[in-house]
Amino acid sequence: MRLRGLILDVGGVLTDGPPVTDLPARSRAVGVRTALLTDASSVAPDLAALVDVVRLGSDGPRKPHPEAFLSAAAALGVPIRECVVVDDAEANVRGAREAGAVVVRHVDATTTVLEVEILLDLHPEHRSH
After folding, report:
1. pTM as predicted
2. What is the chain's percent helix, strand, coil content, to nearest 5?
3. pLDDT digits (tens, 9 = 90+) for 12-21
4. Dihedral, CA of residue 63, residue 42, residue 29 and residue 33, to nearest 10
5. CATH number of 5-126, picked from 3.40.50.1000, 3.90.180.10, 3.40.50.2300, 3.40.50.2000
């Protein structure tokens, strides 16, 4: 099965900067739809510009409820089982998994980027250092 969606947390994931912040553009370049999913009430415009869809805490169910992840996938137009969710909070990773997503628990940028590259078949030579 080809994975066609990437759903990223903001705080604790994208706030780590490059090379994590390069993942949305790299994913979009190979046809993967991208979203930010956060419980915050707003997202910095520069981060929002990286992705196709932004889902805020005020948009519906909040993480770690599985419905939050299902809602983000629906906004992407991609079934949740074809989405990779990257989050740093254990409860959110469990919620995403319960929803049916492939999950990556973000601990550090190097590991997260490598795991997403493998799952989405991204080429490491396009990685920023």
Report:
1. 0.95
2. 45, 15, 40
3. 999 999 999 9
4. 40
5. 3.40.50.1000
